[in-house]
Every structure is written in structure tokens, then in C-alpha cells.
Amino acid sequence: MAWISLFIAGLLEVVWAFYMKQSDGFTRLTPSIITFVAMFASFALLAYAMRLLPLGTAYTVWTGIGAVGAFIVGIVVLGEDASATRMLAAGLIVSGIVLMKYSSNA
């Protein structure tokens, strides 16, 4: 259950990052509210996962999912650049997440 919670927390990090961008510096109400709700839920699920998973593993996986997810949303939804260097960097982050998951005893 901890890994599922951590995965959902990471996805919610992508949600709040996207809606923070959409909030235009918190000047738009609906995206701002979605940002804060998703942040709270993401932190709550991360806190739950950290009860059972090592700190370094949980935090690294959470931020990695958020970083790569935001990168993908940026390219697909916002039309950001998908250069080879950026793709390689995202691939290295995913590799780190996988290694962190398989190195954990939990």
C-alpha cells in the first residue's frame, strides 16, 4: 500500500505543478485552489508512504515522478521543447527511480 500511495502522491505532484503554472502566479482562483488541494493530498500520501518506506527512497521516488511527469505534461500539453538532451535527462531520472525502488527493502 505504501508504494501505491507514493505513486499517487507523485502523480498529484504533477497535478499541482501543472495547475500552479495555470494559476498565473496564483492570480487565477480555480487553478490556485486545485494547486493547494493537490499539494495537500500529495503531501499527505507522501507522509503515509514514509511511515513504511525509507526517507531517501520515498522522497527520491516522489520527486522523480513529479519531475518526469511535469516534464511530460510540459511537452505534451504545453508544447515545451523535447530536445534529445532533455529526453536523456528524463530517462536518467526514470532510471534512478527504478533503481531506488528495487534497492528498497520495503
- In terms of DSSP E residues, the strand content is under 5%
Mean pLDDT: 94
Helix content: over 70%
Count, helices: 4
Number of strands: 0
Main beta sheet, described? none
Q: What would the principal axes of the Cα set say about the shape?
A: flat
Distance N to C terminus: 11 Å
Radius of gyration based on Cα positions: 15 Å
Could you spell the SSE succession in H and E letters? HHHH
Structural class: mainly alpha
Parts with pLDDT < 50 across at least 5 consecutive residues: none
Q: What does this molecule look like?
A:
By secondary structure, this protein is an all-alpha fold. It contains four helices and no strands. The longest helix has 22 residues, at 29-50. It is flat and about 45 Å long. The mean pLDDT is 94.
